[in-house]
Amino acid sequence: MSLIDSLRSMFKSNSTTKRIDIDARFERLRTSVMGTMSNFYVARDHELHRTVGIKILDIEKVELFEGRFKAFNKPSEGQIAMAMKHPNIVETYEAGLSLKGEPVLVMEYIEGPSLQQLIVAKKEAELAGKRLSMIRQMAESIRYVHSKDFIHRDICPRNFICEPDLNKVKLIDFGLTLPATRVFMAPGNRTGTPLYMSPEIVRRKNTDKRVDIFSFGVTCYCLCTFEHPWQGEIVNGKAALNHDTSPPKEILTRRPDLDPRLARAIMNALDPNVDTRMPTMDQFINTIASIKVDF
């Protein structure tokens, strides 16, 4: 039985969705992120006596997104997140509904920066000697998601959280994640973060797991260089139109000290042509396996 079938069976057998009394159970310590589809809070869980992250989803926006796939019985974000158990994926402890009917996820909280924060601030001193390890951990998290027959669909620096010492990196946010099956990979679903979005999504073509590989390649490029392979003056959704109309800047011109094997792997991962792109995360991981020196 596939993970998707297991999820469907599990949640059909439990017809009563868990209700979570957020105000009674949690002490909100601070608001961490205000997103387009959700709000994220750091809180103290008085029931389990630990600090957690609480993600509260916007009902209308979630229903709008999920409504596209209603006929296909798509697992919810909470169902998908609860099933992801990997050292490089933030653990989701519970999923349910608030007393107001809002979807709620209670998850592991990591006290550290996002990859996006490190890249924007150009934290070279902090990242030095850690990048190769971080890239391998990110790759492992995506390989795991793909092994479960899901496509994350929003791989970007914002969705990788680091522990304070930067020795551990974890993938977050399954809000746009879809099963890797034909009906969910059909053309038309243009969602994701534009600067990291593959040409197949931008052009509303058929998709597969390689959309994550493209976004991962762009993320690695930004981590190595603090620059984007395409980004110019345009930083909104239109920027993604450049991904298959102009070539990316060769990474070695910006980072000549990079191991050539890693440079080739990253450039192959972000290849705009899906037919010549790195085909799997397995191949990416195997390609860089023999590199010893971090940078």
Please explain how this structure is put together.
This protein has 295 residues and is of the alpha+beta class. 34% of the residues lie in helices and 17% in strands. The chain has twelve helices and ten strands. The protein has helices spanning 3-13, 22-25, 59-67, 77-83, 115-120, 124-127, 131-147, 199-202, 210-225, 251-254, 260-269, 281-287; strands spanning 19-20, 26-34, 38-45, 50-57, 92-98, 103-108, 150-151, 160-162, 169-171, 178-179. The strands form three sheets. Strands 1-5-6-4-3-2 form a six-stranded mixed beta sheet. The longest helix is centred in the middle third of the chain and has 17 residues, at 131-147. Mean pLDDT is 91; it is low at 6-15.
Short summary:
The chain is α+β, with helices and mostly antiparallel strands and 295 residues long. The protein has twelve helices and ten strands.
Name the overall outline.
globular
Residue ranges: pLDDT <50 for 5 or more in a row? Answer: 6-15
Q: What's the quaternary structure here?
A: single chain
Describe the strand arrangement of the main beta sheet, using strand numbers.
1-5-6-4-3-2
Rg estimate, integer Å: 19 Å
Content-based structural category: alpha+beta
Mean pLDDT: 91
Main β-sheet: number of strands, strand sense, barrel status?
A: 6 strands, mixed
Order of helical and strand elements: HEHEEEHHEEHHHEEEEHHHHH
What separation lies between the terminal Cα atoms?
Answer: 42 Å
Share of residues in helices: 25-40%
How many strands appear in the DSSP assignment? 10
Please count the helical segments. Answer: 12
Give the DSSP E fraction (strand runs of 2 or more residues). 15-25%
